[in-house]
């Protein structure tokens, strides 16, 4: 067994030597995926006190507990912000990370205000929602949008890596993939949520509702003279106020705008703008219901909107 293990170590060392791009030895001290996971967990405790705790929190101890949590969160996040900044600027001073950290912490009450509107939208938009408590505890979009709204602040401050790591942590838990660069208005609700993808340059208005499987993506990627993808630019659609997009629909393109109060039906594939107050759906299929063998001879036919 010992010889086998030595052989495995030898082969791995040879792989480290031969295969570049997968190693970070003698390199920058990159942000830690484990540290980011812990930060995201603690951030949810700060944003939703009492909802992510094993023991109940008494109001008399909330001030002390919040002080302890913010102090712990700030110390670890300061380190991860600094590591992230130094991937693009190795000499970046600690003071730059501290400035971003303070700005982020100052925005936490505002993030909570936005999350309150999201929970209101979920309660109003889902007849199955019995209470706000159920939404916070059991609806996967809540954790996802809480982390995304937080990561967006760091993204706008120019922090590399870290915001994307935060939203990917939420993505792994919920199946909802929202880039930290997406701008999302108030009263945002994703019903069910699994398989939703929202790209970096999306601009989403207020009172927007999405269902599972919706993609707000890029239509195509511009390439340079060498055939490499050109980074940046507006690639993802805008969704204006009051829009509803039903399951498994795909909306693509940086110039695509879904006008306010429009409804996109299920399974629609769209690469063009839609005027305000539009209804978009397919009408070419017909649902047929036929009796099985041995069943009473009844045939029903219904028009089906996809």
CATH architecture of the largest domain: Orthogonal Bundle
What is the number of E strands?
Answer: 16
Name the helicity range: 40-55%
Query: Quick one: CATH class of the largest domain?
Result: Mainly Alpha
Which class best fits the helix and strand makeup?
alpha/beta
| CATH fold description of the largest domain | serine acetyltransferase, domain 1
Low-confidence stretches: 299-306
Give the SSE string.
HHHHHHHHEEEEEEEEEEEEEEEE
Q: Strands across the major sheet, in which order? A: 1-4-7-10-13
Look at the structure and name the CATH superfamily of the largest domain: serine acetyltransferase, domain 1
Fraction in beta strands:
5-15%
Count the DSSP helices: 8
Distance between the termini: 60 Å
- How many structural domains in the coordinates? 2
Q: What is the alpha-carbon Rg in Å? A: 24 Å
Shape type? globular
């Amino acid at each position: 067994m010992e010889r086998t293990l030595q052989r495995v170590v030898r082969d791995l060392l040879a792989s480290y030597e031969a295969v570049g791009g997968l190693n970070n030895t003698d390199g920058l001290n990159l942000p830690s995926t484990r540290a980011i996971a812990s930060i995201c967990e603690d951030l949810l405790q700060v944003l939703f006190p009492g909802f992510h705790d094993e023991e109940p929190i008494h109001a008399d101890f909330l001030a002390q507990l919040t002080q302890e949590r913010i102090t712990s969160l700030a110390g670890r996040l300061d380190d991860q912000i600094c590591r992230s900044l130094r991937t693009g600027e190795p000499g970046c001073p600690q003071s730059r990370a501290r400035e971003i950290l303070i700005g982020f912490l100052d925005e936490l009450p505002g993030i909570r205000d936005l999350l309150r509107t999201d929970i209101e939208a979920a309660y109003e938009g889902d007849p199955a929602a019995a209470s706000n408590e159920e939404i916070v505890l059991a609806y996967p979009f809540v954790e996802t949008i809480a982390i995304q709204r937080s990561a967006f602040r760091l993204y706008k401050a120019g922090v590399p890596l870290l915001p994307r790591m935060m939203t990917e942590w939420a993505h792994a838990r919920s199946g909802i993939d929202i880039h930290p660069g997406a701008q999302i208005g108030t009263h945002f609700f994703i019903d069910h949520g699994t398989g939703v993808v929202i790209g970096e340059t999306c601009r989403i208005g207020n009172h927007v509702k999405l269902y599972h499987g919706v993609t707000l993506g890029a239509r195509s990627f511009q390439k340079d003279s060498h055939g490499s993808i050109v980074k940046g630019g507006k690639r993802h659609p805008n969704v204006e106020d009051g829009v509803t997009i039903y399951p498994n629909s795909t909306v693509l393109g940086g110039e695509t705008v879904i006008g306010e109060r429009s409804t996109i039906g299920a399974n629609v594939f769209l690469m063009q703008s839609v005027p305000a107050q539009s209804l978009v759906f397919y009408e070419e299929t017909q649902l047929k219901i036929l009796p099985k063998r041995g069943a009473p001879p009844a045939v029903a036919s219904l028009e089906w909107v996809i």
